[in-house]
Amino acid sequence: MWPVSGVASMCRWPLNGWSKAFRAVLAFFCASLLSLPIAQAEEARLLRFALSAESPPTSYAQNGEAQGILRDMLLALFATLPEYRLEFISLPWARAQLEVTRGQADGFCTFPSENRKGYARFAARPVYVWDYGNLVYSRDNAQGGVIASAKSFDDLRDLRLISQEGVDWESENVPGFIQRYPVNTPPQMIHMLLRRGAGDFLIMSAEQAQYYANLFGYTEQLRNAKVDFIPNSQVQFHIGLRQSLPDVEQIMARIDQAMADPAFQARQEAIILQYRAAGIR
């Protein structure tokens, strides 16, 4: 497409000596070109994000399409950056990370570990914080008052935790004196707590607990208690772009600028509240 300045110059050519028909055609041509929006001269740059297909509600696939909190956060952020457009691919998490290292995807959202910093450039602010400082219990549990008012793990000493086997975070941050009922997956944790009553509480983000409660019909039974005594409970997810991406520093500077905007931060809070429909009680 010709630059608008060039079209304007052409349309100022002297027309003396040209036929009336030619002058009419040129006038129509100039008017048509000058009426085009300038923004059409450049197409928005595509950024391809690889997201986990297996971690609802943070990130998951539905009918093959990426869904979840991280996708919604990215859409909200880049709505303020019209010079870019997004494409999502939803994969098993190990494969999603591999796509970034191979250059088949441009970015992802994850904890900025030292290993990942070796091949990706991360935003300064987290786009989402997975808050493990949350005790989940049943409305019908007679120990609900003890759980809701707990100030330390010692207050929970006589209660049983529904735990997830093989989770290093839990083994490193929950004292060994806490009684455990181990299961394999988050859905099993919810079933054992809210249907079977196999334990008194579990540790899970309010968003994830609400997701599974809605999925399995336990919404009315679900209760959450926000606590501040669980170590390493704030797991930050940052936007990361592969370091081999052209102009990665310029793109990340725009992302950092947009994320610092109070309007976007308000939108972040609104998205979390949508996924945390039951609230913290």
From TrEMBL:
Name used for this protein in its record: Uncharacterized protein
Q: What is the protein's species of origin?
A: Aquipseudomonas campi
Highest taxon, organism lineage: Bacteria
